[in-house]
Amino acid sequence: MTRLKARSGCGAGAPRRCLRGEQGYLTVFLALSVMAFLGLFLLLIRETGRGTARLKTACGAGTAADSVLAEFHRELHERFDLFYVDTQYLGEAAGSPAQAVGGQLDYYIKKNLENTVGKKLCALQVQEVEVTGMRMASDQGAASLREQVYAYMSADPAGEWAAAALVTVDRWKGFETDTLEWTRRREDNRRKLEEDLRKGEERQEKEREEQPESGSGEGEGAPQEAEEENLARKILAAMEDFMEAPILHQVYGRHAEFSAAAYPVGELLSHRPLYAGNGPVPTNSHGYPQADELLFDEYVLEKTGDFLHEARQDAPLRYQTEYILGGKDSDRKNLEAVAEQLMLLRGGVNCACLFGDTKRTAKAETVAGAISLVLFQPHLKESLAAAILFVWSYYESVVDVRTLLKGGKIPLVKTPETWQTPLSDLLKPWDKARVSTAEEGFDYRGYLRGLLYLEGSRIKSLRMMDIMEMEIRQTPQGSGFRMDRCMDLYSFRARIGCGTGEPFQVEMTVGYD
After folding, report:
1. What is the chain's alpha carbon radius of gyration, rounded to the nearest angstrom?
2. Per mean pLDDT, which of 224-228, 324-328, 415-419 is the most reliable?
3. Which of 90, 166, 379, 392 is 20 to 30 Å apart from 241, CA to CA?
4. Residue 398 has what pLDDT?
5. Nearest to 495 by CA among 133, 132, 127, 130
6. Per-residue pLDDT tens for 199-218?
7. What is the full DSSP assignment across 466-491?
């Protein structure tokens, strides 16, 4: 019984057979575990390599994008405090602006990633770089220009200039409408006076034809009437000759000298078709709003010269603010355009003052009454008195503009006490060179601020960029400079090949903050 159990159980060799089985199972387990851990380890190494490659790709692309922006136009920044990349690269770039910027971007990305060449886990190679969107200075009504102006102007405290500017523009509101209304009334009165004169002459001619011939006594008093009529007509004739002369002759005299600078404005941004940014327009990355009219006008006055504060000697046009308001091809023409605008403005203001001045209105009515009686046309008195008042206010406006251009001040609204010209000056307007001695009011630059405020936003923005083009084209290698080829914001897509798997794709929108 015992022997049978011994044979059926584990004998002396049984333990050895059981140990070998257990050792086999352990070997398989360890082999599988090592394979699993080795696979995980290799996977971690691979993903670490891809993560490193991805990080290098992002850093390299971001640094390359900033390197493109770092190539902003130095002269444009030094003169106008703006950050723009000239996509023509001083005329050396070939192809479109997107191709030029894309080429620069491709070069910088390759430079930033060249230290990965030969590394198996994070070797990177640029496969494709494409600029998908660009914003040029002139896009969307010069939106980027106004954003940069806001960023520049808001960096300084508002201070006294803002308070003064606000006072000025608040008082200018509504003056443009009043000026147009007075201009319309003057034209209506001129047509009425011409019609009344025509009807009166026809009536007198008819009466002479109907009257029988009389003796020599008929002409009594005729020489006196002719003399009075001639004297009466002198006022209107003298002023008519004066008003037909060029405005600068009226203001400064026939032999005045002004800047003779001229520039072919047909080549400038506001006169030519503009290049627009390609593809989708990238969004504003810095969040600045566009400069409003007040802020932009102050920027214009700070960066441009005018008649009393001329630009640099080497500037193509010396009266730059006047160019923004006039848009002509010479300093003289631009100054003349501004003088005409000032005349229109002052004409409306002075008409309002003069027609409300009972004392001076009575003088004009007395003269008009005398003239109408001499002409035997009493119905002319009303329209003739209005014509004299309009001519008188015009001459007062000439004195106002002359005062401004000589550095004086003129109140925005005249009163009887601040009126300068007597009625007698209208007989010999060329012999009088009056200048106001007022100590209160606005100077020439104050009136320029008002005219800029009344000017259209788009026109101001484009002509300001004209000034920038003029000045930059005076610099070495800047002859072909164009503001509509200047970029401050762009989007791009880059495809970077990686030695550890699928290539990376980077998409960014970058601009000046």
Report:
1. 42
2. 324-328
3. 379
4. 92
5. 127
6. 666 666 666 666 655 444 44
7. HHHHHHHTTSTT-TT--GGGEEEEEE
Looking at the predicted structure, is the pLDDT value of residue 304 above 90? Answer: yes
Contact 413, 347 (CB under 8 A): no
Task: Encode 282-316: b = buried (16+ Cβ within 10 Å), e = exposed.
Answer: bebbeebebbebbbbbbbbbebbbbbeebbeeebb
Where b means 16+ CB within 10 Å and e means fewer, 338-374 reads bbebbbbbbbbbbbbbbbebeebbebbbebbbebbeb
Pair of tokens at residue 164: 């003064």
Find how far residue 95's CA is from the centre of its chain. Answer: 28
- Closest listed residue to residue 323, CA positions, set 123, 465, 505, 216: 465
Task: Go through the chain and tell me how many residues it has.
Answer: 513
Picking from 84, 35, 91, the residue whose alpha carbon sits closest to that of residue 473 is: 91
Coil, strand or helix at 461: helix
Please say whether the beta carbons of 397 and 341 come within 8 A. Answer: no
CA gap 331, 322 in Å, rounded: 8
Determine the average pLDDT of the residues in 171-192. Answer: 72
Kindly state the helix (H) or strand (E) to which residue 495 belongs, with its residue range: strand 486-498
Question: How is residue 178 written in tokens?
Answer: 């009043």
| Mean predicted confidence (pLDDT) in 413-435 | 84
DSSP letters of 66-86? Answer: HHHHTT--HHHHHHH----EE
C-beta separation of 444 from 306 below 8 A: yes
Closest CA to 177 of 324, 344, 398, 410: 344
- Dist. CA 411–CA 416, nearest whole Å: 12
If residue 185 lies in a helix (H) or strand (E), which one and from where to where? helix 175-210
Going by C-alpha positions, the residue among 419, 405, 448 that lies closest to residue 351 is: 419
Domain regions of the chain by residue span: 21-143+483-511, 158-202+224-257+290-472
Which residue is listed with tokens 């520039």?
A: 263
